[in-house]
Amino acid sequence: ICGGCADPDCEVCLPHFAGANCEECEPKYAGTNCTECAAPKFTGPACDQCANPNMALPECTVCKAEFTGAKCDQCTNAKMAPPGCSACKPAFTGDKCDHYAFTAIVAGSYYTCGLWGGGKVMCWGDNTAGQATPKAGSFKLISANGNGTCALDFDGNAHCWGSVQGTPPQDTDFLYIAVGGTHACGLDYEHSVTCWGDDSKGQLTVPPVEFDFVGAAQGVSCGISSDNLEAYCWGDSKLASIPLDQNAGNMAISTHGKSICLVNRWHDATFDTYNPIFCWGEGAHMNKHPLQLF
What is the rounded CA–CA span in Å between residue 279 and residue 287? Predict the structure, then answer.
């Protein structure tokens, strides 16, 4: 490089030239006239930006704090997502992405399972029956009761572990699944319920009714019919008898252990809608004055 002097004595260099005799370019510049950015590190109209946006000024030789790796293309926090490393990966949440982003949580007896990270299952707690050791795969829905756990994959097939007996039917495309401890039931898109596993109380004998919802407790299975939203239960006679004077307009079933709850949809005399919960079974008390939810 020559001719970088701005005066005959070479006391002042032309823009972007440097050195005792203005014989070299400033670190950010290159080329005969020192007008090109010194590749591959610098870029921009003034060559004041790093060509790799994940590298840090002024030298563009080290990664910014949030990046790592030979090319600074990995997140320092492995739970954040490239390329920006400013947002959590789908499986995580929180300011530091240090919490699991569960999309569903279910609980059995002394253990819990969560659905997270695009279909992964994580379980913790008591594992005496293998109920906290999920099967491999990606799942869209999960259910637990007693020491049994089941999940639906994205094709609608059921997968069970723990105390659930029998083998789930395949190629059924279930919409919903419910676990009763040692048995389970699935609801398909044709409004049909199929149950498998322990049948010691007759809990697998599904009545010939189309259903919109299915539930299961220990020794009993339940469903909400499609026509008038009437609740049906079959299996253990102590639980299968529904203690309701008005058994219609039900919206959902919730179960745990040997207790069952129904969420109803009622209108009072002024036609205001409210949603009482009715529960029965072990550990449950029938609501004589049901709680108004909304």
Answer: 7
3-state DSSP of the chain:
CCCCECCCCCCCECCCEECCCCCEECCCEECCCCCEECCCCEECCCCCEECCCCEECCCCCEECCCEECCCCCEECCCCEECCCCCEECCCEECCCCCEECEEEEEECCCEEEEEECCCEEEEEECCCCCCCCCCCCCEEEEEEECCEEEEEECCCCEEEEECCCCCCCCCCCEEEEEECCCEEEEEECCCCEEEEECCCCCCCCCCCCCEEEEEEECCEEEEEECCCCCEEEEECHHHHCCCCCCCCCEEEEEEECCEEEEEECEECCCCCEECCEEEEECCCCCCCCCCCCC
Q: What does each C-alpha distance from 152 to 141, 159, 220 come to in angstroms?
A: 5, 6, 21
Name the one residue in this structure whose structure tokens are 């006391």.
Answer: 11
Across the chain, mean pLDDT equals 88
Give just the sign of the alpha carbon dihedral 84, 87, 91, 95: positive
pLDDT tens sequence across 82-120: 889 999 887 788 888 888 888 899 999 999 999 987 799
Handedness of CA 47, 51, 55, 60 (dihedral sign): negative
Can you tell me the distance from the alpha carbon of 121 to that of 139, in angstroms, rounded to the nearest whole number?
7
Contact, 245 vs 226, CB < 8 A? no
- Spatial contact of 257 and 145, defined as CB atoms under 8 Å apart: yes
Structure token pair of residue 220? 């009993």
Q: Is the pTM of this model over 0.85?
A: no
What does the block give as tokens for 110?
A: 């002394």
| Residue-level pLDDT at 293 | 39
